[in-house]
Amino acid sequence: MMIIESFRTHRHSRRNIVNDPEVLTIRRGYRIRLHNDEQAPPWKLWNVINISRLHALAYQCTQRLVFTGSSALLLHGIPTWSANPDVEVWPSETRLRATPFHAVRHPRTTVPRANIISRARRPRNVTTVDTLEAESPIEAAVRLALNDEPLTGFVATCMVMHTLSRFDRFDLEESRRRCERIREEMHQELSRQPHHPHYLRAHTVLRKADGGCDNVFEAAILWFVNTLYSGRIVTQLPITVEDHTYFGDIVLPELKLMIEPDGRSKFGSTDQEVRDNTNKWLKRQHELVNDGWRVIRVSWHSTDDFGAFREYLATQLAIRHLKVPQDCLRLWLEQHQMH
Fold first, then answer.
1. For 105-148, how does the pLDDT look when each residue is reduced to its tens digit (9 = 90+)?
2. CA–CA dist 132, 252 (Å, integer)
3. What are the pLDDT digits (tens) for 162-180?
4. Which residues pair with 250 in a beta bridge?
5. Of 93, 97, 297, 303, which is most buried, counting CB atoms within 10 Å of its CB?
6. Which band of pLDDT confidence, cut at 50, 70 and 90, is reported for residue 281?
7. How do strand 3-8 and strand 23-27 relate by DSSP bridges?
8. In 3D, which of 220, 196, 222 has the Cα closest to residue 208?
9. Are strands 87-91 and 116-118 parallel, antiparallel or unpaired?
10. How far is CA 37 from CA 16, 98, 101, 106, in A?
């Protein structure tokens, strides 16, 4: 189990702390040392450093801070699309004009710099997580849907719905019912800002998000599909073929098409697990294809080029020359413009 040791340092601090190469500088006056981190995956190290940045900022500030958006979700343990999000905060007195966080260099990875974003809109529902104050996950998701890129807001909304609904594919009816209650709460929160310049985009994000996505990659692929296709899309759809029941990650029933995002560890972490799961996948694929289904598999590298991947999906969906509805275009065009 990885242990995090934090240090509040100053110019008179002991040299064995300040000059220790194993002590990571998060910000001037705040350092951490990680214990038992030899086997920790890079994403875990990034997560620890991102959370440490929140503690460092709170330590340096004399005014009350409430973390919002991606920073709030980070504290609530809800994953978002960005592996290194900016620090987002509502200051109770005056707008923060703090310098960005510098890159943090761990022996096995480097976490890039991060900006500090000061929000003017005060959070309504605040909870304390590990001594830090954060807005509620629902407020955070709506804030991201309004202020961030469509993909970021969409993924955050899916993950908040998935987490708060305790989504269980073996109890789909109740899981989807809980998701719809959470969606309604999000729409109520959004209705408080009807004149926000990105209200329509946020409304589309909340309407199309789905708590059936198990992880951020599935949510991202679902976003791509939604930028092109306005028909019925179902996540975690049970499909029975003879005596087997399979769950389709993202299914377009009218096209009898299934999209299967392959996460980083979907086939296992050992050679034996990969072999066993690959054999199961081949059998699954064979039975689904024989039953008339078309299966599209996508990997993380598929999305390295957003435009090229969307073109590929359009071809696979056979809608390359069809008129794309306005709400679908809104998700894509505003993302494209922000880049």
1. 999 999 999 999 999 999 999 999 999 999 999 999 999 999 99
2. 42
3. 999 999 999 999 999 999 9
4. 235, 259
5. 303
6. confident
7. unpaired
8. 222
9. parallel
10. 20, 30, 22, 10
